Amino acid sequence: MDRIIRRFAGTFILAVSLTPACHKKTVPVPPPDTAQPVAVHLTPATLETHQATEDVVGTVRSKQRAVIEAKVSGRLVQYLAAPGQLVKSGELLAELDVQEIRARREQAKALLDQAQRDLARQEQLIANKATSQQELDAAAARTKVGAAGLSEAETMLGYARVTAPFDGVVTRKLADVGDLAMPGKPLLEIEAPTVLRFETDLPESLLNRIQLGATLAITIPSLPKPLAATVSEISPVADALSRTFLVKLDLPDAAGLRPGQFGRVAVPVVEAKLLLVPRQAVLKRGQIEAVFVVRDSRALLRLVKTGKLLGEKLEILSGLEPGDPVVTGDAALLTDGQPVTPAQP
């Protein structure tokens, strides 16, 4: 162990001695006993309570998405949607050739015209007391039936124009001009890219660790920092094959966030006490990690093993004790055993 520490510390002595050599001068490195004390900043290693978490993978999806189908059958004569295209609510996406429905509308208009004329004639006859009230009522009923038939035909004809149900982006194209459209056959898929959520399949063992309304951290590799998401839905039934529960979390607005991205949600498990030091206190050379600890006004190099990085602090798994004062500033310029003094705040 002493040999490793001497070798580790030697890299810093070599770095200091080589810098003056570039100017063709030799600066002797004083032995630790005669070296001038160096002012250093010290921070004690502290035990802090940390919420241990387990990462579960998931996918960013649009909260509002739809599979668009035709409500009537017909041949596609226009298909204006393309993957990635932004569309507005009510914008035309596709149009169908529905000659049969057009013919039905013309038939309904003719029947309504005939019924209205019959009703007008019956009203004249009833005024002259030349017909019965029953005949007048029958003519009025035929007029109502004709109006309803025309309204139905016009509504069906309106279904020949497939429009966007909301503002969004076309994600999939499932048909083209010339295809036969019919109810139950998808034409395209559309999603609202501005309202996103994170969906994950949570193992049964972690289900009791979350609740509706809880805030969890979502890590997306392409984003610089985690996002705070709110649990909005928890499936009450487990998947029969995977034994997992579908959980959905509402995501905040964030630049670079898109549907389909991979991510991880941190599910809280237990609280644990972790030994933490500032991240800049740990020196790394290859696979070796070390810190300088001050004892009796001397900087002593100590090998450590690190764990998780928690913000600006680093977990220490071994090599330090709580309260050990570690050097946090210019530690790379120190040598093992060098005299030091605490820097003034």
Protein architecture, described:
By secondary structure, the protein is α+β, with helices and mostly antiparallel strands. It folds into 3 domains: 2-51 and 273-342, conserved putative lor/sdh protein from methanococcus maripaludis s2 fold, CATH 2.40.420.20; 54-64 and 193-269, Efflux pump adaptor protein, beta barrel domain (Elongation Factor Tu (Ef-tu), domain 3), CATH 2.40.30.170; 67-191, RNA polymerase II/Efflux pump adaptor protein, barrel-sandwich hybrid domain (OB fold (Dihydrolipoamide Acetyltransferase, E2P)), CATH 2.40.50. 22% of the residues lie in helices and 41% in strands. A 6-stranded antiparallel beta barrel has the order 3-12-15-14-13-16. Strands 1-23-19-18-17 form a 5-stranded mixed sheet, covered by helices on one side.
CATH architecture of the largest domain: Beta Barrel
> Which residues form runs of ≥5 with pLDDT under 50?
11-30
Write down the secondary-structure element order: HEEEEEEEHHEEEEEEEEEEEEEEEE
- Largest sheet: number of strands, sense, barrel closure: 6 strands, antiparallel, barrel
Provide the spatial order of strands within the biggest beta sheet. Answer: 3-12-15-14-13-16
**CATH homology superfamily of the largest domain:** RNA polymerase II/Efflux pump adaptor protein, barrel-sandwich hybrid domain
Number of strands: 23
Q: What is the arithmetic mean of pLDDT? A: 86
Broad structural category:
alpha+beta
> In angstroms, what separates the terminal alpha carbons?
34 Å
